[in-house]
Fold this sequence. Notes:
three-stranded parallel beta sheet; two-stranded antiparallel sheet
Amino acid sequence: MYRRYYDAFMDRVVEVWSAWQRAVTEDGRESVYVGNLGGGIRTVKHLRRLATAAAWFNADHQGRSGDTPIWDCAQQGRVAQAVMNGRPITNVTGSYSNSQPTWRHVSKPAPEMTMWMAQTTASGMQANEGLKTSARFELQRR
Length: 142
């Protein structure tokens, strides 16, 4: 039963993402729909299938909390690289502390933020602002 539900769920997600991408590129517009993967690579179980509809992989995984492994951001970047085949991938990073309970008025320690950003870069993901001058982004737009 779960497999049938999940297949129907993924069918709908791919349908919606594809429809949004068609809508933003109709009439030759040079736009892209960026579906937000809140929770990063653990958002859905079939990222390769989702990548068939995604022009851009945006992992909204803003930091570690609880028992999240220290290498989690880099792993997310490697998985995104594997499914996106050279298309743009970005990571949303929060500067707030991801401790329990989450309190967005407290910043995370500087070494934690540095580590998260280093993993983002090392795994091939980019900060959203960097895409404006990215060669990969320019190729995607053509």
